[in-house]
């Protein structure tokens, strides 16, 4: 369908643009026909309205003769189309005048109209060429908009593919670690290994269901963390303790699935596991204005390799996922001081109803 006719706003703008054209055409006929204003308006207004719709055919001419082709062919096509359109317009005007003349008692109106053939024909050609130029501009804008839309769609698809690839790294990473833990428990604590298998199955079932989503509420992510900690507490027993501080205002904020869990896993694997006496993992989730801030802290062996800030696949995965999702609005800070290792995440708090 014609792009102007399918859009009411465009059609309204197009008809408004023809109003001054119709006024100018009326003045031209008034000077040439030596007729009264009512007589001229009776002819000029319907003709201007008619030609406004006839000039919409310029869109099809522009499609058939794109500006990328040779100049000679372009000029030839537009000239032929404008001459044909203008001639048809004058002929239809003649039919209009002949129809009006007997009904309004205007003798000689058709003769006076015919004397204006050069002016009407020339105006018709110029108006058609002007309409063609406007349609070329419209086609260019529409194609530019389509290209831009496709480019944005490709960017979104590329971002989703990268996020899926990053998220896919988490599942086997955690699964392998858990299976190793179960293997270690089968000899020392068979009952614990059995319980751990059941908890692992429940955790994987939940994570797979939520992992299909791009973002989930913090409350659901924290439930995943609790499920993970239940598994790890079987392995470490009294060596592992967890302190939590969660602001209820953060529950509805959206985060990528399995964002906090790999950080907790790193805290236990690189912080608690190497220490004979174990230690406490601190998890703090709170609001900072329009942002959500997540702090994870764990003790580290000051002489161990694991004390290196920023080590681990899980932390790098979190950093990349936040960068892809929040485009520079997310910050990941890693620090180590006085035997404590800290990871601090900060990114916009966006709730479900606020997604564009």
What would a concise description of this structure say?
The chain is α+β, with helices and mostly antiparallel strands.
Number of strands: 7
User: How many structural units, i.e. domains?
Assistant: 2
Query: Proportion of β residues?
Result: 5-15%
Largest sheet: 5 strands, mixed
Beginning-to-end CA distance, first to last residue: 29 Å
Per DSSP, the total helix count is 10
Any idea what the CATH architecture of the largest domain is? Answer: 2-Layer Sandwich
Describe the protein.
The chain is of the alpha+beta class and 356 residues long. The protein folds into two domains: 8-150, no CATH class; 189-354, Histidine kinase-like ATPase, C-terminal domain (Heat Shock Protein 90, 2-Layer Sandwich), CATH 3.30.565.10. Helix content is 65%, strand content 13%. It is built from ten helices and seven strands. It has helices at 8-33, 37-54, 58-64, 71-104, 109-114, 117-188, 190-211, 218-236, 261-272, 313-326; strands at 216-217, 240-246, 254-255, 279-288, 291-299, 331-337, 340-348. The strands form two sheets. It has a five-stranded mixed beta sheet with strand order 2-4-5-7-6, with helices on one face. The protein has a two-stranded antiparallel ribbon with strand order 1-3. Strand 4 (279-288) and strand 5 form a beta hairpin. Helix 7 packs antiparallel against helix 8. The longest helix is centred in the middle third of the chain and has 72 residues, at 117-188. The chain is rod-shaped.
